[in-house]
Every structure is written in structure tokens, then in C-alpha cells.
Amino acid sequence: MNTLMIVLRWLHIFSGVYWVGAGLMTTFVVSPAVVATGDAGKQFMGHLMTKTKFPLSMTVAAVTTVVAGIILYAINAHTPGWESSSTGIAFGIGGVFGIAALVFGIMIPKLNQEMGKLGAQIQGKPTPEQAEKMQSLGKRLKTISYTNAACVITAVTLMAIARFL
Predict the structure, then answer these.
(1) What is the CA radius of gyration of the chain?
(2) Entry pTM
(3) What are the sequence ranges of the domains in the chain?
(4) pLDDT, tens digit, for every residue of 99-138?
(5) Of 9, 43, 84, 148, which sits 20 to 30 A from 36 (CA to CA)?
(6) Distances from the Cα of 40 to the Cαs of 5, 51, 112, 113, in angstroms?
(7) Nearest Cα to 116, choosing from 53, 39, 57, 42?
């Protein structure tokens, strides 16, 4: 059991660090730089999202983090009263925010793909409909990205302090 717990915690923490770090970096650093650099930024983001394994690596890290966390929670929940303790409650709420972040995170590559397809259709100056659709997708992507960031920050905070409550 001890070896299983060590492996699960390692998977949960290591994949969580990658998922959260890369996600926050993308949301708060890369995406604003892409917007600020216009066509060059769009080319970079298009390449990152379609020609690299970045979206897949984020999905694998997110799913690994959540699945390992659920298993860890289930193992700990076998201790009588643990899930109703302040520690168990904090891990549980943190887990819910982690699962929410996974759901929001799955939406992000899909929106990026939709924006990429629309961008590929635009030849020269976009039509008013294309510009409106691109702006709408951009706003939606920003909202989902910031909501995702809030969820992972909340999850990480609760996971970090749970044992001390």
C-alpha cells in the first residue's frame, strides 16, 4: 500500500505541476503575447496548438492528475471519519475544483481549433461576420481560460493547505 501511495502521489504532484504551470503560463503570459504580436503571434499559437504535442501533453497531465487524485481520495476515505474531517473536506473541495479545471481545460483546445479553422478561411481582411465570430470566440476563450486558471489555483491552494486544517 505504501508503494502505491508513493506512486500515486508522485503522479498526482508531478503531472499537476506540469498541468498547472503550463496552463497558467499559457493563460497569463503566452496568450497576451500572442494577442499583442498580431499575425506573428497567431502563427506561433497555430503552430503550438496544431503542430506540437502541447495540447495532448496538457490533456494527459490533467487526466493523470485528476485520476491519481481521485484514487488517493478514495484510499484515504477508507479511514473512518476522514472525509468529514477538515482535511478530507479541503481535499474533496480541491478535487471538485480540479475536476472543473479538467472540464474547462478540455474546452480550450477545441476553441483554439475553431479559431484556427476560421483564421484559415480568412483571406486578407475578414468580413464583418468573420471578424465578429473571431472576436466572439476570443472572448469565450479568454473567459474559459481565466475560469480554468481560477479553478486550478483554488485546487492547488486547497491541496497545499489541506493537511494543516
Answers:
(1) 19
(2) 0.90
(3) 2-164
(4) 999 999 999 988 888 887 887 787 778 888 888 998 899 8
(5) 148
(6) 46, 16, 16, 17
(7) 42
